[in-house]
Design a protein that fits this description.
The protein is mostly helical and 106 residues long. Helices cover 82% and strands 0% of the residues. Helix 1 packs antiparallel against helix 2 and helix 1 (3-24) crosses helix 3 (57-80). The chain crosses the membrane at residues 6-22, 34-52, 58-80, 87-105.
Length: 106
Amino acid sequence: MSSAMVYLLGSVVLDVIANLSLEHSDGFKRRRWGVLAVVAIMMAFALLALAVQTLDLFVAYAIWGVLSITGTALATWAIFGQRLNWISWLGISVLILAILLMNFGG
C-alpha cells in the first residue's frame, strides 16, 4: 500500500472520529468533545493534503468522502444506535459505485 493511501485512510479514520466527537459533544455543550472534533478534522485535512501530493485530488477527495460517510454511518449505528433506511443505504451504494467508475475511468 502506498504512503498516499495510508495518509488517505488515516484521514478517513480521523474524519469519522471528528464526526462521532461532534455528535457526542451535543452541540458543543460538552466542550472537550467539541474540541476533539475540531482537532481531529484539522488533522484529517492535513493527512488528506499529504495524500493529494501524489493522488489526483478528485479521486482522493471522492474516496475520502465515500469512506467517511460510510464509516460514520456504520459507527453511529454501532455507537449511538442511529439507523439508516434502505434508501440511505442505496445512496451509499451509488456513491461507492461512482468511486469505482471514477477509478476505472482513469
